[in-house]
Design brief:
It is a single chain. With 172 residues, this protein is α+β, with helices and mostly antiparallel strands. The protein is 35% helix and 20% strand. The protein contains 4 helices and 4 strands; from the N terminus they run ααβαββαβ. The protein starts with a helix and ends with a strand.
Length: 172
């Protein structure tokens, strides 16, 4: 028991000295530099010439030894970009957003909300889908969530359950 107390005391002492500060930090005035000192003498100065219409810009070409790159991945990156472009050309769908107005089991409620959407925003055509066992009412297709937010805020005034959900938009 006495041995444990000695070890604990020793560790406490070591911890105390480790946590103690290294000394008083030098303040701005003791370091010899004041906040009001003028340092403009030590700054480098450059002449700036503004190009005029009559002046022609010159291209500076630095010539140097030919450098070889050991780990060049440019061709691999080009191949990857080309494969991504090929996939996107072949894609029939793109990720986007829509506004879900209703999700529930009642077809009548879905039709009621569809009519409310027609009254609230006549520019958009709501669509009812059936994902067993729920009917869902969606409005609009947007590529960006910010675009969808404008319609969502209009619909929230009359239909507080309207939310933005991710969807797949078919490309034409």
């Amino acid at each position: 028991m006495e041995k444990i107390l000695k070890i604990t005391a020793l560790f406490s002492l070591i911890l105390f000295f480790q946590c103690a500060g290294a000394g008083k930090a030098a303040s701005g005035s003791s370091a010899g530099v004041k906040a009001s000192d003028d340092l403009s003498q030590t700054r480098p100065s450059y002449e700036v010439t503004m190009p005029t219409d009559t002046m022609k810009t010159q291209q500076i070409v630095k010539e140097g030894p030919d450098k070889t790159v050991d780990n060049d991945v440019t061709s691999q990156v080009d191949d990857t970009i080309e494969s991504i472009n090929r996939e996107s050309r072949d894609a029939d769908y793109i990720n986007g957003f829509t506004i879900q107005v209703y999700s529930g089991r009642s077809r009548e409620k879905a039709n009621e909300l569809k009519n409310e959407v027609y009254k609230a925003v006549s520019d958009y055509t709501p669509k009812i889908t059936f994902d067993e066992p729920n009917f869902k009412v969606f409005v609009g297709q947007f590529y960006d969530k910010i675009e969808a937010h404008e319609l969502e805020s209009k619909l929230k005034a009359t239909i507080p359950t309207a939310i933005i959900v991710p969807t797949r938009i078919k490309l034409k």
